[in-house]
Amino acid sequence: NPTSPANTCLNMSKTITIVCAASDSYAPYCGVMLTSLFSSNRNHQIECFILSGDMRKDSRQRFSQLAEQFGQKITVVDIDKEIFSKLPIGKRFSNISYEAYFRLLMPSLLSDRDRALYLDCDMIIKTDLAELWNTNLEGYALAAVQDTLRMRKKCISRLGFGANDGYFHSGMGLYNLQFLRQFEFEKK
Fold it and tell me: Is the pLDDT at 107 greater than 90, yes or no?
């Protein structure tokens, strides 16, 4: 089990790398999530990357002020939505936006990092993330949790997956970027 306490290890990086994706209309929610993250993790250096296809200048300024207020780092990374124009959005995939696909670019966008913690913008962080951050990922692409049984059944059916196919909650995941690069994840 990659998430058991016996399999935790100290990560070489002292900085926790957070990735989230947000359209400009989700910037306020992202700001609330980041405020809760910074408030609950004051003893850690955090570097946050917000992947966006349309972040306005005033939203970027608010994120700069938030980072300065907590002594942390926030970078808005511009993503061209056209990269994902052929992927499913709408109909059966009505809950998937372009921003949901942006995390797929993390291995190349963060090419100098071994791992990143992806967090959806609709979360409130109430605890220290060190234990999660230090989860041993050796041999695994990511650490994630299964979605609720009700949601798994609903989503597996809606997406046309088999009954035995896995399904995890995509709103939070600790990604092994080094593993994903070696696996040529983005190409596949």
Answer: yes
